[in-house]
Amino acid sequence: MVKTTPFHPRLADLNTTQLWTHWAGHLSATQYDIAAKHEYFGVRNAVGFFDASPLFKFEITGRDAEEFLSGVLARDIRTCRPGRAQYTIWCDDAGYVLEDGVIFRHSANEFLLTAAEPNLSFLQNQIGSMQVSIEDVSDQFAMLAVQGPRSRAVIAELAPEVNELGYFGHTQAKIANSEVTVSRTGFTGDLGFEVRIPSDDALAVLDAVMDAGEPHRMRPFGDQALNLLRIEAGLPLIGVEFTSSRYSYNEHERFTPDELGFGWLLKGIDDDTRPFVGRRAILAERATGSSRWATVGLAVDGHAFEALFYDAGLVPPKDEPPAAWETMLYDDHGERAGYATSYAYSPMMQTQVGLARVRPELAEVGTNIHVEQTVNHVYTTVPATVTKMPFFTPERKTSMT
Amino acid sequence: MSDTHRYDAIVIGGGHNGLVNGAYLTKAGMKTLILEQRHLVGGAAITEELHPGFSFTTFSYALSLIRPEVIRELDLVKHGFNPIYMPTSFAPMENGDYLLLGPDRDENIREIMRHSPRDADAMDRYDHDIGRILQLMYPLFDRVPPDIFGKTAEDAEDVAWLLGHLGSAEPKVVHDAVRLITGSIADFLDDYFESEILKGYLAASSTTGTKVGPMSAGSGLVSLMMAMGEHDGHLGSWSFHKGGNGGFTQLLGRAAEGLGAEIRLESHVDHVVTKDGRAVGVVLQDGTEFHADVVVSALDPRQTFTKLVDPRELPNDLVESIDRFQFNGTSAKVNFALDGVPRYPALGDRTDQYRGFVSVAPSIEYLERAYDAAKYGWYSERPYLDMCLQSFLDPDMAPPGKHVMSCFVQYAPYHLKGSDWDTERNNLGDTVQATIESFFPGFGDLVLHREVVTPLDIERVVGLSEGNIYAGDFLLPQMYFFRPAPGWSQYRTPINGYYQCGSGTHPGGCVMGAPARLASQQILKDRANKV
Ligand SMILES: Cc1cc2nc3c(=O)[nH]c(=O)nc-3n(C[C@H](O)[C@H](O)[C@H](O)COP(=O)(O)OP(=O)(O)OC[C@H]3O[C@@H](n4cnc5c(N)ncnc54)[C@H](O)[C@@H]3O)c2cc1C
């Protein structure tokens, strides 16, 4: 039977639509409000909160924890000081991406990894003779994401420490008498925080956060709003942008970090003192230029999009939920350019945007791409250009004030 | 000889394979007669009203391996093909806990984590690796096995195809396949899992119908066979047909007749008539004769080669091979008519666990101990049970509020030491009922009627030698180009015009129709070559 998160008793009351989806075996609100867009704007212009409890959480401790992680994770964990966190990925020996997650460093040899998928035996199988202990603590903690321009004001009301928290920093704090970890992280591409709470205290902390959020018109947001927020933020989602190489049936389903746009995570890969799983293959890929794809942002020419529909006697559909399938892309010659893995109308950019994979030679910003589009039940294309990601990245996301 | 007794083809045995074979031959334009000894078609796959108002799947009960091609090519949907999806699997535990899995992968992960957090991500790896092995095996499954001993250009081509196919796979996949096919399921599962209940549940199918325990080499092969099916597009999933497997074979009979095949019931074939090394017809026990140039045996290899024809007409090697062919039936059934739905204490009043199979196999050790008895010629004191409350999904099978429960039992070896099945039949029923009672307290109070089917009953009623449910054990030396004997895996026999199409041929037993379909292709090919 599907599980519920520690916040559920409260969320069930708040969810006026009673629409739920299943996420990692838990009930997760699709939308709380009559309009998911309303929740989306709540985050972009004020503050919203999201129940991220279903994430898997692994505690990694022991004398060799850093060495262990620096060999498993593709991003150099040694550059992550205690009190900081990193978005990271891990690969197989062929240099294909397995999964992604966020790793929090609490001390020299205490880490916590959050991930969308179970990983305990995978991680344990890599330990070898090192002194490391790994525990699945998924059910021990609830996770509350508080996101949006006013999120700092809300959380600071309860834990003033967060005023000092830099992007991807975290701190211990006491909220409603509970020892929680607050991090300046999130999946919305905006200013935002995540609060990790011992499960038993989840409701008390949520109540305190909701009280603090009341003057700021804070509201809950669901899955639909989150999806739009993360697309604007250019953040990939496992299961949508990529699948784990371990479960792929052929090479079309596997991707390297460079192909997925994760190249920036590999800073220091030339450093021979840190061998990590997949490193040699990734170096070979770079040496031979064998990447098959580049991941880019795509922004549709809004005028052309409108014209396409008006000329056909239609009203341009601008607020449809993100496409749940791959959208095909073509180059100027009508040859296949690649495909968009996520594609949606962005309220902030006021046009359709997409996370896309294109042939590497088409990756330059400004390159013309033609996006498949049906009009009057016939396939045609609409012009777009390759753009930088994230599409939306306000200064407040990373700034200290 | 009257014209009414003259056919193009005669199929001996109206089990599902006989029906499928007859239907294909008829469809290809041959005037075909199917001869069945009993008053109904279906063989091991029948449904009978053994207690007023209650329909029992006396023997075979679940459907999965039936080839999708058979359904399409014989137009079975038109004749009432109606699978029933079974979304859950329930495995009770001896400590009162349980494992309840369903179609939602994420929910399953959380359920597995209750038993072992470590096994949570192992399940995906296991499923994926099995999936890769199945990918490798399917092309072998749905093709006539190559004759590796054959000397023709065609044989050489077939062997080259096989080597090419295996050679094109990833080394890990080939290695996994070999480990699974030649090794034990216990070892294979240990590579992934630590949870006893999960391993017990996954290992259970590795013992079905064959005299192996989960720790025996060979148990991996059986579990692979059990995973090869699909139901309603879901790979590896088992379900059942409206009206049970008898519901399925009845519509198969209608489909064969619809195409123009003639089915004659209560027609026990005594032997095949041969002339100058050629089959020319059959004689029934009552002396009636039927003639055809093509005679197909849908019975098991022992019957096909030593009962229906005179073994002296066959090569010595073949006769010896068939002599050595292992049957070793070890399965029994106990079918119950129930006054209501059994309760599982840890689930209170919940009954949703009965939407699928209930597998009493709480650990590998439980299964292996159950197997121990069989090694020494006795039935398990605490048997492995695969149960299904069929009327929970198909209300037509029992009166309102009442239920039928099919219960497959292992181990119950055909050869008992120091007793016989007529003496032990009721004791086996008691043993099974006591085992169920220990997991589902109060079960006994619900029992209105009980039908015990021993391996001896299977042999007597259906004709499957030693009660082997697959018409011959699933053991590596009896599979693929060795099934049923080296050199005779391509559905022909040394007697011209005499063919085999039963479960004793590739790919083997279960309600799948694959042997019969492939056999019909051989028969039609030979016929075309002759003209
Ligand atoms: C107890 C039990 C449970 C099973 N459970 C399952 C299950 O859940 N799922 C599954 O897929 N498989 C199951 N099986 C296996 C499966 O049912 C058999 O492998 C399959 O039905 C065999 O089909 P067949 O047509 O090859 O042979 P049979 O079904 O054995 O058909 C042979 C037919 O020939 C007839 N016959 C025999 N001798 C003569 C003669 N001399 N003259 C004329 N007719 C004759 C018989 O009456 C019979 O109808 C089970 C089998 C048993 C016994």
Textual characterization of the structure:
The complex is a heterodimer of chains A (401) and B (531). Chain A contains 9 helices and 19 strands. Among the domains of chain A are: 132 residues, Gyrase A, domain 2 (2-Layer Sandwich); 94 residues, Elongation Factor Tu (Ef-tu), domain 3 (Beta Barrel), CATH 2.40.30.110. Chain A starts with 7 loop residues before the first helix and ends in a 14-residue tail after the last strand. By secondary structure, chain A is of the alpha+beta class. By secondary structure, chain B is of the alpha/beta class. Among the domains of chain B are: 201 residues, FAD/NAD(P)-binding domain (3-Layer(bba) Sandwich), CATH 3.50.50.60; 112 residues, no CATH class. Chain B is built from 18 helices and 21 strands. In chain B, strands 7-6-17-18-19-16-20 form a 7-stranded mixed β-sheet, sandwiched between helices. The complex binds flavin-adenine dinucleotide. Flavin-adenine dinucleotide binds next to helix 1, strand 16 and helix 17 of chain B.
Task: Give the oligomeric state of the chains in this entry, treating copies of one chain as homo and distinct chains as hetero.
Answer: heterodimer
- Largest sheet: number of strands, sense, barrel closure of chain B: 7 strands, mixed
Tell me the CATH superfamily of the domain at 3-43 and 68-81 and 243-326 and 469-530 in chain B: FAD/NAD(P)-binding domain
Query: Helix fraction of chain A?
Result: 10-25%
Could you say what the CATH architecture of the domain at 3-43 and 68-81 and 243-326 and 469-530 in chain B is? 3-Layer(bba) Sandwich
At CATH level 2, the architecture of the domain at 8-56 and 139-221 in chain A is: 2-Layer Sandwich
Distance between the termini of chain B: 25 Å
Q: Output mean pLDDT of chain A.
A: 96
**Count of extended strands of chain B:** 21
Basic shape of chain A: globular
By secondary-structure content and strand pairing, the structural class of chain A works out as alpha+beta
Unreliable stretches of chain B (pLDDT < 50, length at least 5) are none
Radius of gyration of chain A: 22 Å
* Unique ligands: flavin-adenine dinucleotide
User: What percentage of amino acids of chain B are in beta strands?
Assistant: 15-25%
Q: Work out the helix count of chain B.
A: 18
| Tally of DSSP β-strands of chain A | 19
- Percent in helix of chain B: 25-40%
End-to-end distance of chain A, in Å? 45 Å
